[in-house]
Amino acid sequence: MEGKSEKFELGRKTRQSVLGSEHVARAEANQSEFDLPFQELITEGAWGSVWSRENWSKRERSMVTIALLAALGHLDECAMHVRAAQNTGATRDDIREAVLHVAIYAGVPAANSAIKVIKDVFQTIDAESRNSNEK
Question: CATH code for 56-135?
């Protein structure tokens, strides 16, 4: 990752704070020559330009991102951002409110599909928490 722009480095730092260092390390380890330009684009654009702005908190960005991904039916990305909400301060109540907005403004089927995925993510998080507490 040497020689990257300031925007890239800021984006990488923001991405790590939201998605977690392990997630970013996995994404970087799995990138290829084919998707390297895409990874650079999202690191600089999404994470360095948008997520790094100070106008909204990471919590607010999480809620909007989850709502948009749910509304558009991008459920894998939605699940990733629901998990990441643990790092941004967005609560389960916040996420529920975002999905209620999806139901009204993007349609009940989109919200219903997202709710199924979000419930699965919450169950996984809860199970991981129980397992780590038992150790």
Answer: 1.20.1290.10
